[in-house]
Amino acid sequence: TGGSMKSGSAAKYPTMSLEELKQLPVQKIAAKDSILFLWTTTPLLDETFEIMKAWQFAYKTAIYWYKIKSWGLGFWFRGEVELCLLGIRGKVKAFP
């Protein structure tokens, strides 16, 4: 989890704060016309949209990874899905 529990991701490996992620210079190194694929979990959707906006990408759609054989983490629906958000900046044509 990304929460404050001792079992959260910060207890297992180094993490970055929301502000640190937003400050990454993605908008400076990405091409003027480019696509961003950004993985997230459902509890962190609001924060992920903030990051995408800070990097100057506009959200378009998402793909979902359903973890069929996994007993997910979390308290409400056990988090058995992760999302990969697709954002664009500039002029990018949709996939054929």
From TrEMBL:
Q: Where is the signal peptide?
A: none
Sorted alphabetically, which keywords does the UniProt record give? Answer: Methyltransferase, S-adenosyl-L-methionine, Transferase
Return the InterPro entries for the record: MT-A70-like
> Which PROSITE patterns did the record assign?
MT_A70
Keyword Disulfide bond recorded: no
Pfam families per UniProt: MT-A70
Q: What is one Gene Ontology biological process annotated in the Swiss-Prot or TrEMBL record?
A: methylation
GO MF annotations, alphabetized: RNA methyltransferase activity; S-adenosylmethionine-dependent methyltransferase activity
Q: What is this protein called?
A: Uncharacterized protein
- Native species of this protein? marine sediment metagenome
The organism's lineage? Answer: unclassified sequences, metagenomes, ecological metagenomes
